[in-house]
Structure formats: C-alpha cells, structure tokens
Amino acid sequence: MATAAATKAKLKAKPKAEKAKVYTWEGMDRRGSRIKGESRAANINAVRADLRRQGVNPTKVKAKPQPLFGSGKKKITGQDLSIFTRQLATMMTAGVPLVQAFDIVGRGHDNPSMQDMILSIKQDIEGGTGVAVALSKYPIHFDDLVCSLVAAGEQAGVLDVLLDKIATYKEKTESIKGKIKKALFYPTAVIAVAIIVTVVILLFVIPQFKELFTSFGADLPAFTLMVIGLSDVVREWWWAMLLGIAGTIYGFSYIYKRSRKLREVIDRASLKIPVIGGILNKAALARFARTLSTMFAAGVPLVEALQSVSGATGNIVYQDAVLKMREEVATGQSLQLAMRQRDIFPHMVIQMTAIGEESGALDDMLGKVADFYEEQVDNAVDSLSSLLEPLIMVVIGGLVGSLVVAMYLPIFKLAAVV
Fold it and tell me: Where, by residue number, does the polypeptide cross the bilayer (predicted)?
C-alpha cells in the first residue's frame, strides 16, 4: 500500500511535459557550410541538442513568431488521423521502436496541430504512460473504439497487428464519409447555384427591364409585375435576408448540437429521403459491420464492442437500435436474434450474422457485409452524380427561363398590338 501511495505521489509530483513549439535556427554543418531551418521541440535546449546529434553546430535558435490573427494551425481532420495510424502501423510492423515511430511520424507530418499532438503523445509514452491512455487524452480525435483496440493490442502484445486493423478501419470509414459528403454535395450545389443565379438576375437584370417598361407606359402582365416586385424587395431588403439566412443557419446549428430530439428527427427523416436516404442507410450498415468486425477480430467482447459500434454508425436511429441490441445480447440473446427485433437491418445482414455466429467466423462475415455495402455506397454515389447533372441544368434552366419569359412578355404583347 505504501509503495502504491508513493507511486501515485510521484506521478502527481511529476512536472507536466512542455508543449512542443516551432523554432527557427541557423548553424554550421560538418563541412562548415551555413544552413538554416525549422525544428519542433519542447524548448530551445532540446532544439540545440537535436541539432548537435545531427552534426549541426547551432549559432542561432529562436521561437518562430506566431501570426497576428488566428493560431496559424490547421484543423486535425479524419484524413490526418487515418494517415497517422497507417504510418504508425507500418513502422511498428517493420520493427521500429514505439517511441521512435511516434517521433518519426510526428516530425514528418505536414499539419502543425497534428505534429503537436503526436509529439505530446510521444512524450507521455516516454514518461511511462501506456499508448491507449496517452491517446485517450485526446477523445475528440481518438474515440473509445480506437483506445479499446489499442489497449487490447498492448495487453496481448500485438499492438502492431491492432494498429494495422485500426488503420484499415480508419481508411474504410473515411472513404465512406467522403462518399456521403459527395452524395450530399450535389443537391446542395443545385440549390446554391439556383439561388445565386436567381438573385443576380433579380438584382442586376430585372431593374434594367423595369426602366425600359416604365418608359413604355403600358400595362404589364401580372407575371411580369410579380417578378419586378420580387426584384424590388430583394434590392431593398437584401441585407435583412442575408442576416436572416445567417441567423437561421447559426440558430439551427446551435440547437442541433444541443438537442438530441432534433438530431433524432433529422436523422430519421434523412433515411427516408429518396435516393439520398438509401445511401445513408447503406453507409450506416457499412459502418456498423466494419466497426463490429474490427473490434470482434481484435478480441473485444461482443457486449463491449456494441457500445463502441453504436457511436460509429453516424445515425441516431442506428445508434439507438445497436444500444438496445447490446442490452439484449448482455442478457444472453444471440446477436442475430437481437437484430431481427429491429426493423432497420436487411435480411441479408441478419443471415450473414447468423452464419458467422454459428460458424465462429462473425468477424469475417461482418467484414464481407461491410465490403458489400461500401461498394453499394460507391455505386449509388456515382449513379446519383449522373442523375443530378441533368437535374441541375433543368432547375437552373427553369428558373432563368421563367425570369426571361416574365421580362419578354410585355415585349411580345407590344409586338402583337403593333
């Protein structure tokens, strides 16, 4: 007990590792040539020591000045994490020591924010912290799923194998996310382009026709008057409209982040949108199968794995369903039977799960399910792209055509009178 207490006291007394900073330096190499560059380290002394190890005699080292506006750092993306995991897995498989692998990957990363995080994790590991614990300090970037798999790898002595599985999982999930974004981009693009074109015409083109029609002094068709009235409203109140749109977007995003009920309503409705809903359903199934396959293959107990899987599906409808399945599996029910009680899993997925449970190859069967639905998402996104290309032309053509007709109706009317 005394030893444990002493250990805890030492850990508490241990100073916090300094955060890595960027330093610019100048020095002389072994041939006497003057060189300069940048290094990332905890302090100036660490930079000097690192340069001397490389055969450089530093003559000037100073902290790189921060930009006046903003932090100057890029956001850490899912792609950054995917690349980091793959690089780390490759180095571990090649036999590179863990700390050295973190150092190489961290210093070689293009994203300064990612560099800071990786080198900070490296410092924790050097201080005796486990990899899973070190990663868990960054829950935004390393969720419970990743930390659980890393912990399992550390305990079993197969960290390189588990890192490879995590890397593959990350690459697959990032690919799915990219396809979903691509699928959602086209409808958004159609709406945005249509609005921009319409506003430009209302602001700059319609007023020119209005002046022309005023000089005629003739009665205008109702449709033309409506378009001119709309143009007047947009020209006079464009600033209020912009503020209203910005306020609506901000308010919606604010409430969306804080209201689970709203997210549930939107997630449930999004699954029923024609074409798009099918893609989102398939993507959620692919994530479910891929995540569960990865965790089960790593030896994570099914009940514990389902907890992590629920958050990885990307949709509250599936998340709630998986959590209910977890409760049923925890009472001794089979996974495939728990899935049958939910109405969101296709028959094929349930059958593959049943075969996997009976044959003891659940991870393999779920992996095949994930492969199938990932391919389905890919094909669906390509089909959607082909479908929406002519739709964009129809929507924009219809809007512009309507405005043009509204402006030319009076001219046609005058021509008929003449």
Answer: 184-205, 237-256, 391-411
